[in-house]
Write a structure and sequence with these properties.
With 239 residues, the chain is mainly alpha-helical. The chain is built from eight helices and two strands, in the order αααααββααα.
Length: 239
């Protein structure tokens, strides 16, 4: 890449293009699991926690225990990513951010090979795990706190910064408004495309998200081994 990129304030893994592609993959995950793997969303756990509480309130103990599985997978993903993120950088080969994308690609390829009659929970738990790791690892896009697996907060941020921009006309509010708005757009558009692909290609359609992640992996690996090689010990913003 360009020499002056070495001096940039934000690492390659914090650039907008990374977050836009990550959230497009997440939109694909959501469409895939909802349409083909059990009618659920794997990207976050709010609904599962609510269902868990309802099951407890209705004394449906088996259902409550079952819901602890995806919640536990999401918890474990955050734990593992935090633990490995601090450990991997000691080897000074690739950033944890880059390695994580490689792991996601391998998991998605494996899920695409699952037969139609495989338990949906295998796919759900695997995606819960990697979505949690991704959410915990990629936290800020050029200094702006952002999620790459769901859009609830982005919708709130668009409303908040739109009001701030109308009131004060500050460039920072405009930048944040556009960033959060584009993240919502990429998520939604990719969910539409993912839905179409699920219809056309069935259970193998999840491999489309792996192609998106492969682009990220290649570019981040190039950065790690070339123009950001001396910056491998730098911690991304938000950590």
């Amino acid at each position: 890449m360009r020499d002056h990129d070495i001096e940039k304030e934000y690492l390659e893994c914090e650039q907008r293009w990374v977050y836009f592609l990550l959230i497009t993959a997440a939109g694909w995950f959501g469409a895939y699991t909802f349409i083909l793997r059990g009618g659920v969303f794997c990207n976050a756990q709010t609904a599962n926690v609510v269902l868990f509480a309802i099951a407890l309130g209705q004394q449906r103990w088996t259902d409550a225990l079952y819901l602890l599985i995806p919640i536990g997978a999401y918890f474990l993903g955050a734990f593992v990513s935090e633990l490995l993120g601090k450990t991997v950088k000691r080897f000074r080969l690739l950033r944890w951010d880059t390695i994580l994308i490689g792991v996601e690609i391998l998991v998605i390829i494996g899920l695409g090979f699952l037969p139609q009659n495989a338990p949906d929970q295998i796919c759900q738990i695997a995606l819960n795990f990697i979505c949690s790791m991704q959410f915990n690892t990629f936290r800020q896009v050029k200094g702006i706190p952002a999620a790459t697996t769901f859009v609830t907060n982005h919708i709130r941020q668009v409303g908040s910064h739109l009001a701030k921009y109308i009131r004060h006309h500050e460039s920072e509010s405009a930048t944040r408004l556009i960033t959060h708005g584009l993240l919502i757009l990429f998520f939604a558009v990719r969910a539409v495309i993912g839905t179409i692909c699920c219809t056309l290609f069935g259970y193998r359609s999840i491999w489309g998200s792996a192609l998106i992640l492969l682009v990220i992996f290649i570019r981040l690996a190039i950065a790690d081994r070339s123009y950001e090689k001396e910056l491998l010990s730098r911690v991304p913003h938000g950590h």
